[in-house]
Write a structure and sequence with these properties.
Blueprint: E1 8-9, H1 18-32, H2 45-58, H3 66-94, H4 98-103, E2 108-109, E3 125-130, E4 134-139, E5 147-153, E6 161-163, E7 166-168, E8 176-182, E9 185-188, E10 196-205, E11 208-209, E12 216-219
Antiparallel strand pairs: 1-2, 3-4, 4-9, 5-8, 5-10, 6-7, 10-11, 10-12
C-alpha cells in the first residue's frame, strides 16, 4: 500500500548566485500574486520585487569599493531572508501538498536535510621549516569543511576580502602564492629565496568560504 509523502519547499537558491536568487524571487512573485492558497505572505509581493531589483542593481559593483561590496552583501542577505520566510509560510499553507508548493513558484521535495553552513575559521596551523626551503604544514580542519585554501605571503602580509565565493587580493599586492586545494598535511616547496613566509588559511564547503585564520609565520631554512 502506498503512503502519502509529505512535501516541503526545496531551497534551490544560494547567496553565491545572486542573479539566480533574484530570478527565483521574481518567479515566486508571479506565482504567488493573487494566489488564494497564500493570502497573507510575510513579505508583500511588491516588496519582494524591490528586493530582487536591489540584488540586480548591486551585482555589477559587487567587486567595487567597500561601500559597493557591502551593499551587494546586504542586498543578497536581505533577499535570502525574504525567500526563506516565504517558503516557511508556503509550507505552513501547503501542509505537504506538492501542487500548492509548485503553484507558489517553488520546487517540492521530501528531502529535509540540513542546509550546509559556512564552517568556523581554521584555528591551528603548524609550520615546520626544512633545510632547502620547504615547509611542512599541518592544518586543523573544521567540522563540515570540504577543502582548504591557503594564501602564502613571501613578503608583506595583505588584508584579503571575500566576495561571494571569491577571495579578493588588493590591487598592487605582490609576493602572494595561492594553494586552492590544500590538505590537512602537506609540504610546500621552493621558498629558499625568502627569509620567511606567512600563511593564512580558509575553510571551504558548499555554503561558501570561512573567515580567515590568524597569520602563521615561519623562518625559511636555506
Amino acid at each position: 500500500m502506498k503512503t502519502n509523502v509529505t512535501m516541503v519547499c526545496k531551497i534551490t537558491w544560494t547567496k553565491n548566485d545572486p542573479l539566480g536568487m533574484a530570478s527565483i524571487g521574481d518567479y515566486s512573485v508571479a506565482k504567488m500574486t493573487g494566489n488564494a492558497d497564500v493570502p497573507n505572505p510575510p513579505t508583500a509581493m511588491p516588496d519582494v520585487t524591490k528586493a530582487c531589483q536591489r540584488v540586480r542593481d548591486a551585482y555589477p559593483d559587487r567587486l567595487g569599493d567597500e561601500a559597493q561590496r557591502q551593499e551587494a552583501v546586504d542586498a543578497d542577505a536581505a533577499l535570502d531572508l525574504i525567500l526563506h520566510e516565504q517558503v516557511v509560510y508556503v509550507d505552513s499553507q501547503a501542509k505537504g501538498d506538492k501542487k500548492v508548493i509548485i503553484g507558489c513558484g517553488f520546487e517540492a521535495t521530501s528531502d529535509t536535510r540540513t542546509k550546509a553552513v559556512i564552517t568556523d575559521e581554521v584555528k591551528s596551523v603548524k609550520l615546520t621549516p626544512k633545510v632547502g626551503g620547504s615547509v611542512n604544514v599541518i592544518t586543523e580542519i573544521p567540522n563540515g569543511s570540504k577543502g582548504l585554501f591557503l594564501v602564502i605571503f613571501t613578503g608583506a602580509v595583505y588584508t584579503l576580502t571575500v566576495v561571494e565565493k571569491m577571495i579578493v587580493i588588493p590591487p598592487g599586492a605582490s609576493g602572494i602564492q595561492l594553494v586552492p586545494r590544500g590538505k590537512g598535511a602537506m609540504t610546500l616547496k621552493g621558498f629558499s629565496a625568502f627569509p620567511s613566509i606567512s600563511i593564512v588559511v580558509y575553510s571551504i564547503n558548499a555554503a561558501g568560504i570561512s573567515a580567515v585564520s590568524n597569520v602563521f609565520t615561519t623562518q625559511i631554512l636555506k
